[in-house]
Amino acid sequence: MRRTDEHERHFMGFWGEYVVARSDKPLLELEPLSAGVCQDGHDSCIDCLSAHGDDGWQTVAVHHGLPGRTPDTLKAIAAQTGSPALIVYICDSDTGHVQGWSAQGGFFGTWFTPDLAAEYEVPNDIAYEDETGMPSTAYQAAWDSAHSRIVGEMPQRARDACAWAEASGWHSDPEKVLEILLADRIEYAEHHFFELLRAMGLPAAGM
Hints:
This protein is α+β, with helices and mostly antiparallel strands and 207 residues long.
């Protein structure tokens, strides 16, 4: 169910977003990135991480995440670039929630690493421990329900990710995409995300 002490190895993992888009100018010049602030209002949280190949694909890291709703941000970036856009929110380096938008296919969204993702789907008002210090029955039930749903949706989510990739001009590996989405024994979610991008076909994807 919940991660063991073996997984509790990040003293402070990364919380924030990676924005992936293709543009003939730096992504930092596009709205809302050009405002230069994260959702907490800090003005030093946005970094141009890398460019991928020679066709304009770029990645920007945003500590804490961008202001506003992710679907709105995706559509705004895509409208400025004329290309699909992708954003992943990384949760404490444990797992990530990927969302993408393309004019051809609209939105898609998926978690990866379902064992850990299920934790973030449990409502905050459900206590993890009972009076004995063990996982509570309510938490276990909520985690089981979230985990079952996430895993059950993964094959379709993998197909959605590959469809987004094809709309972006990439050549994806559907079996590898599904394998990466379902993986649970990972070191850092941000590195795992770039493995996902490579499986989806992003040229020269890497941190």
